[in-house]
Design a protein that fits this description.
Structural class: alpha/beta
Protein name: Glucuronoarabinoxylan endo-1,4-beta-xylanase
GO molecular function: glucosylceramidase activity
Strand content: 25-35%
GO cellular component, one term: membrane
CATH topology of the largest domain: TIM Barrel
Largest sheet: 10 strands, mixed
CATH architecture of the largest domain: Alpha-Beta Barrel
Helix content: 25-40%
Oligomer: single chain
Distance between the termini: 57 Å
Keywords: Glycosidase, Hydrolase, Signal
Signal peptide: 1-19
Mean pLDDT: 95
Radius of gyration: 24 Å
CATH class of the largest domain: Alpha Beta
CATH superfamily of the largest domain: Glycosidases
Length: 484
């Protein structure tokens, strides 16, 4: 080969190799950026209100007497998969009682990214829960072959609301479902209520039940992203409930649920383990994840916030420990609400702060998605067929037809409205315990930093990112989202 031809060939190879190199993403920079501050504060009319437009200046070493929030965009962690709430039978029944105008307002409030807070996650139930007007099933009692299976019950209220929510959200809403109890004939106590366990002879029947549900919902145009094995598997409740030890859940997933979903060509449906409080999640993770044959079917772990029933504090560190031990597994907050409904406390600010505290800690400990409980309840905190009345971020007074927005709605919105799908959490820390903070880098290059002030005093703090900073003021008992 001639020398010039060889040179030309080498040049072409070089061009091809260069073209195949992945384009490097631009590193985040604050240079030339402005900060838009959105604020919600107690004793004010600020509700996710744009309150300031700030610029960056050269950063200086903060002093011990100053309060600072430090963000390091180069240190990236979990990918964000969404924030949302549960469409229960109760929520759907109350929604159906609203006027058309109020229905539109409600849907926009949750699911529209501009007019509302942009929910992107949805949880729903497989059969009835406590937040149904009564217990019901998709099959006739005793039907082991599931020949009578139908979701006709859900077509009256729940499915229409889910479809409207998906439409309002732009045509896509990541949906997952959880069962509260198998049918009475499948259980050791012969009752859908008050605990009991799934009888071994019905393990396969119950696994088939999940597959039937998923396929029927998908026929309705509602793709199911995932399912949990069982809602609150260690709680004997007065409502629909079923007990699984860690070993029982492991074996049900390994030998029945996982293989059945795969066999039914539903292997893409994620299985969420645990779906209960933070207190016992470490033991459940150790038992299920240490078994490779069970673990291979499990996307990750769901958890709730009700461990405080015992009088203790929220056990956020357990989430961090599971994430530390099993970094390849997902984490999702699957349920939380303010218990013991009291209409005089609709605007009790501490309810909103409970959400802010939990969401910041859960995200900072590795959680990828966060799901509230009922998206809507009535003026009694129901309907609930066993009197377990609770708060929702939005209530509807069915006597007047009015919607009541609680502080919880706005606190959730400071996250869901500004953190978008596929965002990456980045390192965010505070210098004083009066503030809490978490930060997410969106795919479009914008950063959302959430800062919460739990104290009775307004605080001036420095937002410091690399060699630049800005000074921000946050009111007492407030939450802010800084977008830059």
């Amino acid at each position: 080969m001639k020398k010039n031809s060889l040179k030309a060939l080498c040049f072409l190879f070089s061009l091809a190799a260069f073209a195949q190199q992945p384009k490097t993403k631009k590193e985040f920079t604050t240079h030339g950026k402005k900060i838009t501050v959105y604020t919600t504060a107690e004793n004010s009319n600020l509700r996710i209100t744009s309150t300031d437009n700030l610029t960056f200046t050269a950063a200086k070493q903060p002093l011990e007497v100053e309060t600072a929030v430090f963000v390091e965009p180069a240190k990236k962690f979990q990918t964000f998969i969404g924030i949302g709430g549960a469409i229960t039978d109760a929520s759907a029944e109350i929604f159906a009682k609203l006027s058309k105008e109020k229905q539109t307002e409600f849907l926009n409030a949750y699911y529209d990214k501009q007019k509302g807070i942009g929910y992107s996650l949805l949880r729903t139930t497989i059969q009835s829960s406590d937040f149904s007007s009564g217990s019901y099933s998709y099959i006739k009692e005793g039907d082991k072959e599931l020949k009578t299976f139908t979701i006709e019950h859900d077509r009256e209220f729940r499915i229409p609301l889910i479809k409207k929510a998906i439409q309002t959200a732009g045509g896509k809403l990541m949906t997952y479902a959880a069962p509260w109890s198998p049918n009475a004939f499948m259980k050791s106590n012969g009752n859908v209520l008050k605990g009991g366990t799934l009888l071994p002879e019905y393990y396969q029947t119950w696994a088939n039940f999940y597959a039937k549900f998923i396929k029927e919902y998908e026929k309705e145009g509602i793709p199911i992203w995932g399912t949990s094995t069982q809602n609150e598997p260690m709680a004997v409740q007065t409502w629909e409930s079923c007990i699984y030890t860690a070993e029982a859940e492991r074996d049900f997933i390994k030998n029945f649920l996982g293989p059945t979903l795969k066999k039914e060509k539903l292997g893409n449906v994620k299985i969420i383990a645990w779906d209960h409080n933070r207190d016992l999640m470490n033991y459940r993770a150790n038992v299920i994840y240490s078994d490779p044959e069970a673990s291979k079917y499990v996307w990750g772990m769901g958890f709730h916030w009700y461990e405080t029933w015992s009088g203790g504090s929220s056990m956020f560190e357990n989430v961090a420990k599971v994430n530390e031990a099993y970094p390849d597994k997902g984490l999702m907050f699957t349920e939380g609400c303010v218990e013991k409904f009291d209409a005089t406390k609709y605007q009790f600010w501490g309810n909103g702060e409970r959400y802010g505290i939990s969401m910041i800690n859960d995200f900072n400990n590795g959680t990828a998605g966060w799901t509230d409980w009922n998206i809507l309840l009535d003026q009694n905190g129901g309907p609930n067929h066993v009197g377990n009345f609770c708060f929702a971020p939005i209530h509807a007074d069915t006597r007047t037809g009015e919607l009541i927005y609680t502080p919880s709605y706005y606190y959730i919105g400071h996250f869901s409205k500004f953190i978008r799908l596929n965002a990456k959490r980045v390192s965010s820390a505070v210098s004083r315990s009066a503030l809490l903070s978490t930060s997410f880098l969106n795919a479009d290059g914008t950063m959302a930093t959430i800062v919460m002030n739990q104290t009775d005093k307004a605080i001036d703090y420095k937002l410091i990112i690399g060699a630049e900073q800005s000074v921000v003021k946050i009111p007492a008992h407030a939450i802010q989202t800084l977008v830059y």
